[in-house]
Amino acid sequence: MNEMSEAKILETLVSRFDQLDSKFEQIDKRFDKVDKRFDMVENKLAEHDKRFDKLDNILEEQDIKLFNINKKLTKHSEQIDELDYTIDKIRSQTACLSLEQGKLSMKIDQLKNRKK
Q1: How far apart are CA 62 and CA 54, in angstroms?
Q2: Helix (H) / strand (E) containing 78
Q3: pLDDT by residue (tens digit) across 85-105?
Q4: What is the pTM of this model?
Q5: How far apart, in whole angstroms, are the C-alpha atoms of residue 17 and residue 11?
Q6: In a domain? residue 30
Q7: How far is CA 56 from CA 13, 25, 47, 59, 70, in A?
Q8: How is residue 1 annotated by DSSP?
Q9: Residue 16 Cα distances to 6, 68, 86, angstroms
Q10: How many structural domains is the chain composed of?
């Protein structure tokens, strides 16, 4: 009777070990699914990283273009300042010439009046 109960105990233990093995297999399958999900997430993150790298490259190119545009605008602004200075100088000279022309006209009129 004692031997049968030992056999029964062994049979019960083997049955429980089989159940535990089955549960561990289920847990392993779940971990495999989770691993696959993490791999998918990592792949998507890698794709997003590539997209961000592309955007960074585009932004760097845009920064260079904007820098060049700013440089040209600064150069044009300096040229416009030079033109403004030249125009002011020409106006000043024109005003002086007009005054001198007026004086010259008065002298010519005076000379004409003397001859009469």
Answers
A1: 12
A2: helix 2-115
A3: 999 999 999 999 988 888 888
A4: 0.52
A5: 10
A6: no
A7: 62, 46, 14, 5, 21
A8: -
A9: 15, 77, 102
A10: 1
